Amino acid sequence: MRFQRLLLEAGSSTVTLDLHPRLTVVAGLGRMERESLVTELLGGLGASRPGTHVEVVEDTGRRLGVIHPAHGGRDRVMDLASNDDVTEEFAGENGSVNLLQALGFDVGSLRRRCRMGSHDMATGAVVDSTVATLAGCDPEELWTAAEAVQVCDAVLKAEVAAIGGDPEDASLVEEVERRHAAFEAAQERLEYVRHHGIFIGGACVLAAMPAALIQHWASIPLLAVAIVTTLVSIAYRRRMEKTRKAERRVLEQAGAKSYLAFRIQRMNAVFDGGADRTRLALAADEHRRALAAWRQLAGEVSVDLAFDLRDRVEAAARRIREAGGRGVATAAASAEPTELAQALMVRMNELRHAGSSGESFPLLLDEPLQGIAPSVKHWVLELVGRSAGTPQIVYLTDDPEVAAWARAEAVWGELSVLEPAPA
Description:
Layout: E1 2-10, E2 13-18, E3 23-26, H1 31-43, E4 52-57, E5 63-67, E6 76-79, E7 84-85, H2 99-102, H3 107-114, E8 115-117, H4 124-135, H5 139-162, H6 170-214, H7 220-253, H8 259-266, H9 274-298, H10 303-308, H11 310-322, H12 337-352, E9 363-366, H13 374-387, E10 393-396, H14 400-410, E11 416-418
Parallel strand pairs: 3-10, 3-11, 8-9, 9-10
Antiparallel strand pairs: 1-2, 1-4, 4-5, 5-6, 6-7
Helix pairs in contact: 4-11, 5-9, 6-7, 12-13, 13-14
């Protein structure tokens, strides 16, 4: 299976992404944008995701259109060649349309299989270093913190689902809430400063008038205080505008023009029950706290990777205790080009026959070469360019070097480049 087209409805606007059958490089995407695009691509194949429509080509050559109406209505699957409705072929027990269920996946398991980031490109040497780092932590604190992150993540997703959102959007919803809270705090600080600044500045200006009549230099300190209060107020206003722009950027990623529109879109009960927002905010705050506690112990190691390596970490911790606490290696090893290539080829081989019926799935590369030396990066990019096609590869990046390489290669028609441009 490969993606042919993704259509996203946001209000009266529709965004269309045409994907190359071999390799598409989508450049200029930050972390949140990459997260959102992965969610839309894979979520469009799963259960109802209003406003997301995906066109795919099966390995047999059949072209399917998966339609999730934005404003209610029945989800459908159409055979685009014959224009026949083949929804029944992919309908679940409850009547919902789900291509992934028919192929033995859900969105979460497919995301883990199809998405490959810089952590997934980790080689054996990097994994060994990760094991050694985790083994040096207090085991009780380490796994308690890891389990707390998992529990908080599940609670956050449950709260998002309870208000009618998609659990896969939990990180995006959390980011919106965090940005909005920062904006509200900046607004409150600005109002406080303006209120007191107007009073102090006005009093100083009024006092400066008679002082200037008596002796002109006596008014200078008073005018200086008025100027300082004005400058402080301007600084706080600029800070508030900065947080407002940050909130708008993340709201645009969520497909909303304002926070109120986001609340109406994602949280239908905003006017009926403020408890929804309170529970979601508390869940998001607990998730942030748990993640901060985990990172303080384990650094940037993901919780999922830690659990995958748990047996090796515990065995290494036992060896360290038996050795009296000596021999913990903490320096991360650099990945060799051949090891990066091996990790890439292994993942591509897994995806060639990943479905229960042997169906292939696209590989979504999410900034996989972050922190890699330029010479190694270009070598791996050439490998990606030569190997793409079986399976299809969608490369999501914010790296100017990758974008420049893709633009040069696109001349030959072997790949396409998509770059966001201002409207």
